[in-house]
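User: I'm preparing a small set of examples for a lab meeting where we compare how different chains pack in three dimensions. I only have the primary sequence for this one, and I'd like the structure in token form so I can line it up with the others. Please keep the answer compact; I'll paste it straight into my notes.
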Amino acid sequence: MKATIQPSILTGNIFAPASKSSMQRACAAALVRKGESIIHNPGISNDDKAALDIIQKLGAEVIMDNEALIIKSDGVNPIAKAINCGESGLSIRMFTPIVALSQQQITINGTGSLLTRPMDFFDEILPQLSIDIKSSQGKLPLEIKGPLQANDIEIDGSLSSQFLTGLLMAYAASNADATIKVNNLKSKPYIDLTLDVMKAFGLNVPINNNHETFTFSPKPINESTNQPISYTVEGDWSGASFLLVAGAIAGNIVVKGLDVQSTQADKKILEALSASGCSISIQPDQIQIGPAPLKAFHFNATDCPDLFPPLVALAVYCTGTTAIEGVSRLAHKESNRGLTLQEEFGKMGVEIVLQDDLMLVKGGNGVKGANVHSRHDHRIAMACAVAALKANGETVVEEAEAINKSYPNFYGHLQKLGATVQY
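Assistant: Understood. Below is the structure token output for the 423-residue chain.
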């Protein structure tokens, strides 16, 4: 699919999409707790659909009821010999330890870019938990056979916090009496989100010692924890960051449905927007944002690497050179995002320099309409589309359907705000 974007002026109100970070964690928590969970404002992205398919294959019953999901579970009791995580990095890393709660052998696979992502972490750690694992030289598919035996372990948190999220969920479900020590943990806010979701679902939440150790104590069996619970998926700061940047460069808009107290890492987009000098008013129930003379800024995205694409779309319209730290976090995304951003925005006449762990975006020199490619990466597609809103001509995004991974309504939402988009 191609998406064609014309220079446009935006106006109006829009609700942020549901957070796939929150939604997928809720699916996992609903699976491992025993009882009925009601999930309101469920997400509809491909990653969300993959998580729902996984928990059903692992024994949960999922019912759609008046735009809410009812999930009934008696824990991990697989009804299939294989699960497929699609292209979801969170699902593969979170559900693999959860799968290992069962003594059945399960094959775990994925599609697209997930097939090339490193899974060496599991080869190293899972045997320490009495789990049999076979991988394809550190890549998918994985063959897993439990049951997991929670032990004191030490892990490296530098590649992704998502591995730790899966271990925390699995340890809670196994009623662990053990400690996980973590070295060099990245994306700490995502672990805070994991712990918040675990608490909301009544799971056994560990003692968090400065994100360095997580200590579990066995929880007495309490039947009241099996009572139905309700959880509302919050708005997605990751997807909304593209809407907010669009407002900052192309018109006055209001974005609703975001929790300004959220633990989502990508809430830090507000810091970058404020530093750029755009017109922004942050209220408890909405964010009003519009253009102003924009200036270059310095931002550390080490703990929120998914912000790189929208930050680049913002920086190209900021006078001066914007510096964004954390490039090393981009190598194992849907694409190698550092290089992809440099190449695709280069087609739009923007110079991006990659210097060690730093990305330098030279902005304020105008943006050309061009033919660009998503590289099958949802955030690259959205970043190019947002930058196209103030370009000097038409922009065509090839393989534009990549957005379905996280934000299927993205082009429709731009249209609702007045953008001229054909797809």
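A couple of notes for your slides: Residues 352 and 361 are 5 Å apart (CA to CA). The first helix runs from residue 20 to 32.

User: Perfect, thanks.
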